[in-house]
Each structure stands twice: as structure tokens, then as C-alpha cells.
């Protein structure tokens, strides 16, 4: 997994493209071409390499193809090579503080899009997402509670009995799609945020049998800037933990 990522990161132009997406995600090809002294074809080639390495994802919005930074592979490298046992929420708090200290340009298009390939069936992914005993192993030691019906409530509870997040099930299509509203109830700096939306898309890989692509889209957060930054840093950790659980049976820390 690491080799394509390291090769993709080795080129300074590709690192520049990632920096541009980090500064403002969800950009079209034209927007990414403007800051670079490079042909349109050259930028497209670099973007294809980044997408093949899993470092970016793309989504169609109207007639445009938008490019999004996918933080999951970088997070996996960090977990493997840098600090497996660092407190995960600390990263979110640091990024939240930095973001609140500068003006945030919010748009109506999806901004936080993360994707990961997991060697498991869609049904296994769905089960891991909806069973409290399993969610507690990859969602920061929190278990999810719901009766899993459209318009029903869901809650995320920590091991010490504190409710961390809540929302409503907006769309349910087992085992392929889950959409829910999202609001943190006990996290620093998010008290004034309105509910946003999180969508889990679970699709069998088109080429590799037994592999599932899991995509998480967080959007509708125009009035939830702080929540968006927490999830921008937290979702890649959750996805990495989900992959570790389903492929090895253990959490990221080996517990």
C-alpha cells in the first residue's frame, strides 16, 4: 500500500496539487491548472496518479468533475510509521483551533470526502457500522445506538457513559448506503454548530473480488464549521480503524 503513495508524493507538482486541495477542497481541473505552470494534460496526468494512489477522490457535481483530498492513506502512513498510539482526538482539536483562527470559506458542494478499500464484503462493513460492540473498536471507543429505521434517532456514546454525538437517520439502504444528520454534543468548540450531514457509501470494488470501497461524504455544514474540521481529521482515523478491524480483527492500537 505504501509504495504507490510514496511514489505519488515524490513529485513536487503532485505535492503542490495536494496543498491546493488542502487549502480549498472540491476543485475543478481548471481551478487546479491556474496556479501551476503546466499544461492541462500534465495536470490531468498528475491528478490521475494521485487518484490511483488513493490520495484524492473525485465526484461529479453537475457537469463538473471535482477533486477532493483523501486523507485516509496519509493517516494510515502516520499510524504505521509515526505514532500508532497518539491520542486521536488531539489532532482534531489542534486543527480546529487553527481553523477557527482564520476565515473559513464555506461552499455548498461536498468538501470532506474520504475513501478507503477494505478486504471485506459490504455486509461485513455494514455490520461493523451498525453494531455497538464493533463500532466501539474503531470509533474512538464509542458505540452507536439506533433502531436503524429512517427518521429514527442515533446516538454515539463513549465507554464512560458520555453522549458524544447525535442525529437522525435520513436514508437507509443496507448494505450500500447510510445517510444521517450529525451533531456533536460534547466536544470543545462546537456548541454553536447546527446539524450537518454524513453519508456512507459502501460499494463492491469493480475489479477486485472481496474488496469493498467505503466512501464517507460530510456536507451541509455551512453552519457547522467547527464540526467540519473535527470530522475532517477524525473520519480518516475511523476509516483506518474500520479497515484494521475487518482485515485483522484488532483495533489500530492492537487492543
UniProtKB/TrEMBL annotation:
The keyword DNA-binding applies. SMART domains: HTH_ARSR. NCBIfam families: HTH_metalloreg. Keywords: DNA-binding. Pfam families: AHSA1, HTH_20. Residues 1-89 form the HTH arsR-type domain. This is Metalloregulator ArsR/SmtB family transcription factor. Belongs to the AHA1 family. GO terms for molecular function: DNA binding; DNA-binding transcription factor activity. SUPFAM superfamilies: Bet v1-like (SSF55961), Winged helix' DNA-binding domain (SSF46785). CDD domains: HTH_ARSR, SRPBCC_CalC_Aha1-like_GntR-HTH. The keyword Metal-binding does not apply.
Amino acid at each position: 500500500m505504501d509504495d504507490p503513495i510514496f511514489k505519488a508524493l515524490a513529485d513536487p507538482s503532485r505535492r503542490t496539487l495536494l496543498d491546493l486541495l488542502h487549502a480549498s477542497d472540491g476543485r475543478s481541473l481548471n481551478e487546479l491548472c491556474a496556479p501551476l505552470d503546466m499544461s492541462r494534460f500534465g495536470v490531468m496526468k498528475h491528478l490521475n496518479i494521485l487518484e490511483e494512489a488513493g490520495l484524492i477522490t473525485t465526484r461529479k457535481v453537475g457537469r463538473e468533475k471535482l477533486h477532493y483530498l483523501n486523507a485516509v492513506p496519509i493517516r494510515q502512513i502516520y499510524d504505521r510509521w509515526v505514532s500508532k498510539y497518539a491520542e486521536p482526538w488531539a489532532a482534531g482539536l489542534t486543527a480546529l483551533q487553527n481553523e477557527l483562527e482564520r476565515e473559513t470559506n464555506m461552499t455548498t458542494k461536498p468538501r470532506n470526502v474520504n475513501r478507503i478499500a477494505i478486504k471485506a464484503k459490504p455486509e461485513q462493513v455494514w455490520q461493523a457500522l451498525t453494531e455497538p460492540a464493533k463500532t466501539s473498536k474503531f470509533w474512538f471507543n464509542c458505540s452507536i445506538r439506533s433502531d436503524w429505521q429512517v427518521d429514527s434517532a442515533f446516538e454515539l456514546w463513549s465507554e464512560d457513559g458520555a453522549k458524544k454525538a447525535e442525529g437522525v437517520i435520513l436514508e437507509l439502504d443496507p448494505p450500500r448506503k447510510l445517510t444521517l444528520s450529525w451533531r456533536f454534543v460534547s466536544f470543545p468548540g462546537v456548541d454553536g454548530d447546527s446539524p450537518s450531514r454524513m453519508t456512507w457509501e459502501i460499494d463492491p470494488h469493480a475489479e477486485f473480488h472481496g474488496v469493498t470501497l467505503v466512501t464517507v461524504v460530510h456536507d451541509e455544514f455551512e453552519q457547522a464549521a467547527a464540526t467540519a474540521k473535527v470530522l475532517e481529521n477524525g473520519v480518516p482515523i475511523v476509516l483506518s480503524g474500520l479497515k484494521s478491524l475487518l482485515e485483522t480483527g484488532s483495533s489500530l492500537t492492537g487492543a
